[in-house]
Amino acid sequence: MRDATLSVHHPAVSHDGYAALSVPTHRASTIVFDDAAAYASRGKRDLDGYSYGLHGTPTQRVLEAQLTALEGGARTVLMPSGQASIAVIFLTVLNPGDHVLIPDTAYPPVTNFCRDFLAPRGIDWTVYPPGIGARIAAMIRPETRLIWTESPGSTTMEVEDIPAIAAIARDRGILTGIDNTWATPLLFKPLAHGIDFSMQALTKYPGGHSDLLMGSVTVGDLDLRRRLRDTMRMLGLGVAPDAVALVLRGIETMAVRLAHVGRVATDLAQELHDRGAGEVLFPALPTSPGHDLWARDFAGSSGLFSVVLPAGAEARLEAALDGLKVFAIGASWGGTRSLMAPMSVAQARRHDHPRNGRTILRVNVGLEDPQDLRTDLAAFFDALG
Ligand SMILES: *Cc1c(COP(=O)(O)O)cnc(C)c1O
Questions:
Q1: 292 confidence band (pLDDT: 50, 70, 90)
Q2: What cofactor does this chain's UniProt record say it requires (predicted)?
Q3: Cβ contacts of residue 207 below 8 Å, gap of 6+?
Q4: Quick one: average pLDDT of 106-120?
């Protein structure tokens, strides 16, 4: 063969004696076939197999299998982001004329998706209060096809009675899904509590280093996996092998990171409660709403909590944030760095609550020395006055 040909034909080398602990990153768009018959029958390959890079390489299959094992499911699909995961679940289950229930504490882009994308296409939605539990039965309509949950909820951290909601839905043949990003499957296993779609933003704790975007959905039913993959194929959604490799790296330390930030967050949240910094919203604290459900259903706590700032604190908030030395100002979470973000839920919430009009500070505990975090928090709340 001539040089140009040799340049694009990679020589086969021996793998004998090669055993690494890391998962190889297989990058591929094109996948080739051993013979004409294999090519002709490629459409019959099962969904765990390989046909085109968009549908996964062995690197992706390893992460899918690892998440499936952690979730106690049958299969996992990977999506380009957490939000894409939620959108694909909704688009898979809901057709024009159908109805979906979402919690008042849903990740805000979910509410926007229902209002600005699904509703104009004839899919109706209703917002339920997150404390509803079994009373969700009264909000179910004949055309309800999906009940979405998120626990603890965004910003205000209400814990939902997932087993009660899942039991009502199952009775009526309605599918359920959860945004389990706060807990990850290490701290809460949705499928064991009767949920059909267990979704998490891998962007947060599994990635763990604030440098990638990805989401996952694990199901216990192969037909639901097939339907999710059909939607993804229609929309042309896939994930990049390099990002998958980063999640595979992050997930190896996730249990240790979560145990650490859960412990430090519990200490810091308790100290803020004790100093009267404001109402602390963190289900691990006995004084926090949802503590009993959390203690019943969760194996522990992660490192994200909220503090309802005292009325009038807004006047000094900017200066207090600008004075931070260790915490960075930012809204995402689950990485190595501690973050603070002031939030307002007033525009987003349908159901009244006295704290809706207040500024709520969201705190993500990272991996810095807890004493440095404690000092920074104390200075912050001193500055708020
Ligand atoms: C970050 C987040 C998402 C979205 O994940 P992306 O990967 O950023 O799209 C969804 N739900 C919750 C609770 C989140 O915190």
A1: very high
A2: pyridoxal 5'-phosphate
A3: 214, 246, 247, 250, 334, 335
A4: 97
Q: Give the tens place of pLDDT for each residue, 222-264.
A: 999 999 999 999 999 999 999 999 999 999 999 999 999 999 9
Task: Indicate the range of 80-89, 308-317, 367-376 predicted with least confidence.
Answer: 308-317
User: To test the ligand 1 pocket, which listed residue (112, 178, 200, 203) has its Cβ within 8 A of the most ligand atoms?
Assistant: 203
- Is 213 a pocket residue for ligand 1 (Cβ < 6 Å)? yes
Q: How far is CA 54 from CA 76, 164, 225, 361, in A?
A: 15, 38, 16, 39
Domains recognised in the chain with CATH numbers? 36-251 (3.40.640.10), 254-384 (3.90.1150.10)
d(CA 261, CA 264): 5
Residue 186: both structure tokens together: 């290490």
- The rounded Å distance from CA 32 to ligand 1 centre is 35
Please report, rounded to a whole number, the percentage of residues in the chain having pLDDT higher than 90.
Answer: 92
**Pocket flag, ligand 1, residue 203 (CB < 6 Å):** yes
| Distance from Cα 201 to the centre of ligand 1, integer Å | 5
Ligand 1 atom closest to the CA of 81, numbered from 1: 7
- Inter-CA distances, 314 with 240, 271, 304, 357, Å: 42, 22, 21, 12
54 CA to centre of ligand 1 in angstroms = 22
The CB of 81 under 6 Å from ligand 1? The reply is yes
Specify the DSSP class assigned to residue 173.
T
Nearest to 93 by CA among 213, 200, 15, 176: 176
> Residue 136: pLDDT above 90?
yes
Share of the chain above pLDDT 70, in %: 100
- Which pLDDT score is estimated for 348? 83
Residues in the chain: 385
Cα of 289 vs centre of ligand 1, distance in Å, is 23
Among protein residues, the one whose CA lies closest to atom 5 of ligand 1: 82
Beta-carbon contacts of 271 under 8 Å, excluding residues fewer than 6 positions away, are 374, 377
Q: How far is the CA of 151 from the centre of ligand 1 (A)?
A: 13
